[in-house]
Records
---
Amino acid sequence: MEVRQLPFPPGTYPVIVIGSGPGGLQVAYELARRGIGHAVLSADSGPGGMFRRWPFFQRLLSWTKPYAATERQSRAFERWDWNSLLAAEPELRGLQTEFMDGSSDFPSRPEMEASLAAFADRAGIMVRYGCRWESTRRDDTAAGPRFTLTTSDGEYVCEHLILAVGIAQPFSPATPGIEHAVHYADTRAAETYAGRRLFIIGKQNSGFELASGLLQWASRITLASPSPARTSIETRSLVGVRARYVQPFEDSALGGGVDILSASVSEISRVGNALRVDLKRSDNGMPVSLEADEVIAATGFTCPLLDLPALGVATFGQSRLPAQTSFWESATVPGVHFAGTITSGASGLKKHGIPSYSGAVQGHRYNGRVLVERLAEEHFGVARPRPALALGDLTDHVLAEATNGPELWHQKAYLASVVSVSPDDGIRDEGIVPLTHFLDTGGPDALAMTIEADGQGAIYPVAYVRRGGRVEEHALEPHPLNDFEGSIYRRQAGALLDLIAPGASAS
Amino acid sequence: MATRDEIADALAGMTLFADLAAPQLLGVASRFEEAFFAEGSRVLRQGLTGSAFYVILDGEAAIVVDGDQRATLGRGEFFGEVSILLGEPPTADVVALRPLRCVVLPGSAVEPFLIEHPRVTYRMLQAQSRRLRNANRARG
């Protein structure tokens, strides 16, 4: 009989990754490709992370457009595919398109799970499944910090710890009577809510996802949180309730059995067979009470960082995200890095209030790649490719990046495509760099190209030009079709490039 | 610091929000987001568009113009509002001198917020007037 050996037995590894969701799989792929010694541990029994369970109502909030006018195996296709992981090999790219049945551009939860499993399988990503991280010790050695992880399978020691454990621990506020509520994570099958009066605490996407899915079952649905709900259509970004979940808004506006309140819950109590919910209105503090059969706390999740805060990892916000450097390393404990949705703790500039898209696969997959590139260069002697560029190609290069670069489109005002110019090194394509890193560390004369949005509906390229260590921001015009390769842009970009590479505009 | 309730409690002790009752404070706390900045990191960047309004929960920050430190700010003090009210990029960097915790409101949300909360606006005007008076005294 063949006994299947589990990979990565307990021991010492240069890098340990925890998690086998999209974030863990992406960094595991990047580490393996660069030949960096590592182990990947996961408490789950297979790949897929949260997509093995959520969202309840079976479809994702992120789309893939299989028939976009770009070759599926090209880098440019990633702009039209929010769900596939990244790979150098063309045959591993755009995998989500294989797992869609044509009924929607939003893959179903099982389709997403299947695509991630196929990526892990075909890329040969090894994970030690069923291995639960339990506690952490930090020792400072002459060679730097060492982390010792106690797991259900034994002890692991590493120099660099990459946590890709998601924002997955249910969070409920300390409201009196909260024990009468169940968390979103424990929502039952939809039909069990038939004829029930449902009260949902929270007006984020998870609250509206439940409301949408239960419209046909519940007898009445009330959603409440202290501040007004906003939709992504109003914010013209991924901030707010996504367009897929707007039906409860319309029902509310038409008086159709859905109520959306701006109020805080002061107490939940049992009255006979029902629950009484006492609220205070946010606008005037007046009390409101109602009866419900079920209360669900769609109040979000926190990062399951176990004992890391006690080791000094600073966290912030309701999700207790770790504070991070531009390269997703703990801002307070060097050697602890993050991948996956947790990278939204590296907030970036949040220009015009628009956050990075690191909370979703289409954003954090790039963070994972840039993180491993950085780690490889700083600690493992694997240099990043920095191809030379000809002066005459510079304008075309930066405008093609602005028009097609998926990293720039998915991580607006967050990841930049950088070209540098120096006497020793000539003109170099520096690749994709976190914008805050470019802005806050000096370096040779350079231009960082980003795509940005102003929250009013405009999308436009922004060039940050660094000369003599000082950086200036130059916004280019928006284009109605988002095509930034025309003559107006050639003139604008050429003039900016002339500042660091005289003659660039002459081509 | 983490939850909305804890942020509301922290805001309750600040002059800027001193006139708000508890449910209003919870509403305010849920509109602002918490942010953390490691020592030495930049919070506001001179000349960059799209910035936000910050209120310090904990820590200390320096206002830096062209590399010169002009003033320091601590718990309960705020910054970023001038560039938002004028619609211009900040004319100074703000840098964390120690680990800094703030609550943040995006620039575009500041006008509706101030209109909805006139008592906060009044307190902000008082603080601005004090800064102006002190600047004039320093000059005189």
---
Amino acid sequence: MILQAISTNLIPEDISLAIPGNLGFFEFLIVFSFALHILFVNITVGSSVLAVFQEIKGMSKKNKQIDAVAQQLADHTSIMKSIAVVLGIAPLLLISVIYTQYFYSSTNLIGKAWLALLGILIVAFLILYLYKFSWEKMQGGKKGLHVLIGAVGSIMLLFVPLIFIVNVVSMLYPEMWAGSKGFFHSLTYYPQIWQRYIHFILASFAGAGIYLYFWNRRLDRKVDNMSPDEMSSEEKKENKEIQKRAKKVGATTVMITTALQLVAGTALLMSFEKEIMMLYMGEDMLLTTLLMSSILLTLVLLFLVYRLGKTDSKGAFIGSVVVFLVILGVMGWMRHELRESYLGDYLEANPRTTEKVLPVLEEDGEVELLDEEEIDAKEDAEATEEEADADSDAAVEEDAEETTDEEADAEAEKADEEAEETTEA
Amino acid sequence: MNYPVIEFPWLGNGMMIALIATIHVIVSHGIAIGVTALMVSLEYRGLKTKNEQLIGVARRLSKWVLIITTTVGAMTGVGIWFVTSVIQPDSIGSLLRIFFWAWFAEWIVFITEVVLLIIYYYTWDTWKGEKRKIHNRIGMVLGVFGWLTAMIITGILSAKLTPGKWTETLSFWNAFLNPTYVPSLAFRTFIAVLLAVSLISLPLRIMIKDAKLRKEVFKVFSVWNAITIPGILISGIWYLLSIPDEAADLIIWATGMPEDLFTILHIVGLALFLIFAFWMAVKPEKVPVILTFAIFITSMAFIGEFEGIRESVRKPYVIYNYMYANGVAAQDLDKFKEEGYLAHSAASPIKEVTADNQLEAGRELYKGQCITCHTVDGWRTKRAFADRLDGWDEEGLAGYIATLHETRPFMPPFAGTDEEREALAAYLIKVSNEGIDTDLTQASAEADNK
């Protein structure tokens, strides 16, 4: 199937400038920076939705403490999102540089949706700031409207991952590009999209849950260490209650969503083409090991979070955070290997530019392509023509300068001649 | 044409980039760098003169800096990447490879900047007494990191106009430390602060009712004016002297104004800024609202104009001497002329012009080589073929395209075979008369039957 697809080639030649570094190292960087980015994205998306849920719960139960948890979540959403955005620069840079032929094609197939992302995110972020900064002002009768503001912002955030997922999934299917009809069509046209989406959303809640737990555990310690002048014992008690509630929300969220991941992950695995799926089920040692360890670690995480909910022990807490981060790393790595498995044949058939090829300006202005060895040879040959004591490098440089100067002069003259034309235009 | 092409038929593809880039420049220069500098200096002055109100102004500003830079600022910054990869994929793809490590360093600087901004905003009450200096110092470091982001990106921007030795060596440092790097960095630095003063003087003039406080604020601003206005003039002239002559010749043309109007507007604009600066220095409590409003508008017009000119004078190139504005690499020109452009266009379903597909082939060529700057029937009539080609015929146009780059030096040469050139001419004449919705398959078949 894949071989036949290569014959209908929509994959362009790679850009002629070399990828500026070691490919393996770049692959490491993309896995690392993407994992970092997605961690903050997960927390942002999860916290934003959880905030709305908690605010509604607080309203219906008329409970101020639940509202305080919701407010804390909304506060953190806006901070996490700022970090998430800038963290995204490196993975975007790397995917553009090492998968140019695929990523730019898949991006442009949904070009308008890709650009719409900017508008959606700006508006969503502004709405979420409004949600956060109007919390105190919009109590009582305005509470319903306030929830609505948060809900609109959250729904926009929930939509955004779909655009990213369509892009990174469609880049894996060059043979399907010709039949693609834009973003909305792609949502059902390509396999894996919704399975990935659910996998991502569940991870977002889990990430937000862990973060919520972490933050309130930290606040707990802070409150404990405050002297009576800084905080009265009554305030302390109230704060502790809020933190206890927040930790419970956090732990429960992690438990439920992580358990569901076992189903969602399986569904995602089943959505891969059979030959790819089999790589994870014994045919490829690395992929199989990664998958097995991620499943095992997920079970460990469930156990640790369960204990954490019961005891709030330091060991269980640190264990949960560490295991969660390791799972995130393993997932990121698997995600990369999955891309490599899909693109493997294409990458071979459409090689990337990994060696620098210098363009050389000839005397007659023609551009000629030489590789580095040829350039050395050419430089040596030219150097021997120069005076014996002349430094060969300098000579070549001078030579090149003269050429370009002459050219520049000629071009300037031409420009002068045609200046009238230009101003007329 | 290596990648699928997206079309904005009314706005124009180039305008999409300009729109996002201009908003980003105003926010990144004016607010992220400029207002940050003003905010931190107000705090500094407030601490020094024990003026709590002045610190209060800085504090209020910090909220707006946080909100605007982390929404519009950050997203339009990423947006320039997004929009160029959609509209100019070959150009941005090349730039990413040339400047990978600069952008990677930028990533780290950006993260630091955002984290510092968050710390700055959330720790106004953390330190008391003498230790409040710490908060101000964090602000100063924030200012430095804001400036560092510009320091890095300016290397990339200026290299597009003056790549210098890079076209021969393809070396990163030759590209980064190109001939206009230092003057344009200096120019942008001064612009950033003056733009900030121009942008926030109006809202502050209206919102701060207390004349005494206003006086204090504007006194701080006028110190900055005394630095930035001469700074802009000097670095601006230095910058002008460093760009290629061909580019300098295109400046007035790039604004689309007649020379007289250009001169008059710029003298008036400069005079306005000088009046503003003197007024602020001499009678800071009495700067008229109308003057702050005029400066607010003028400053944005100037920055928009500057970026517009900078992008335009580079023509016919997008990366000078390396890649044409339509994404065709200069080194590929001969190959395309001999072997055909479409044959090398992965995203084009048509690889060769035949009698049956002339118009569809023409459309692919239009998408590949014209659409970055032109529209069929867009709002910019100067760039819309429906207006430009009024009265032309196919044969005349085909001949004209062959020498286009000579008669109009800002146009890239046509990169393709003679058949492709004729196909392009046929398509352009067809759509400029009948509009973009023309049924090309039908039309091609008719042409075939003739």
